Amino acid sequence: MASYTASFAPSGGLHPTLHLSIHPGALAAPSSCTLYALVDVPRGLIADRYQLVQLQRDGRLGARGEADGAALVHVGEADLEAPVWRARGARVLVRLGDEGSGRVDDEGDGRARELPERVDVEVPLHLRYQEPVERRWEGDVRADVTQVEVEWPHVFYACDRGTASPRSSTSSSAQQTPACPPARPPPLKLSAPTGVLADLPLVEGVTAAAVWACFAYLCWTAAGAYRRGRSRAERDKRA
Fold it and tell me: Do residues 102 and 34 lie in contact, with contact meaning Cβ atoms separated by under 8 Å?
C-alpha cells in the first residue's frame, strides 16, 4: 500500500526544511501519470520561489531539469521581507518524476519507468517575522514563542484525461488521483520566536548607542588620517 511521511528537520532553526518520504509501494499508475507533491505554506513561513527553482534545476528538488512551468509551481505570497501580519499563504507544487514516470498496470500496454521504492523530497522554508507580544511571560508560560502550523502535504498522480486510474482498471477523466490514502494526520507544528514589546526601549537604547559609537570612531579615524596626511605634507615641504 502506498504511504508517505512528512516532518521537519529537528535542527532547522529559523530556516526549517520540510522532509517528505514517499513509498509508492505496489500502487500501479499508467505511463501517462506523473507523481506530484503539493505543499500549503502558511503565512508564517516563506517559500522562496527563486531558491526552489534553482534547486529544481540542479536536480535537488523533484524532477531534474529546467523548470518548465509544471515541474515546479509557486503561487501566492512572494514578498520575502513582509512580516506575518502583512503576508498571505502560498502553495508549492513539485513534480516528483519525469512525465510518464508512473508504473504500468497489468492491463496497460505502454512503457514506463518504475518509480523507486522510496522518494525523498526536501522543501526549504524560512520563518517570517512573527507578531510581537507585550511581555515575555504570561504567568508560568513563555509568550515569546508561537506555534506555526503547516498542513499535511498532498501527494497525488496527475494523469491525462481518459487515462485509467491507478486505483481502477476503468477509464477515468479525473486529472488528479491520490497516490496515498486521503486521510491526513494533524498539521505539523513549528516553534517560532517573536519579538517582545517590553524589550523595545532597551533595544532602541542599545541600537542608538552602537550607532553613535560607530559614528564617533569613524570621525576619530578620519581626523587621525587627516592629521597624519598634514604632517607628512609639512615634512615634505621642509625636505
Answer: yes
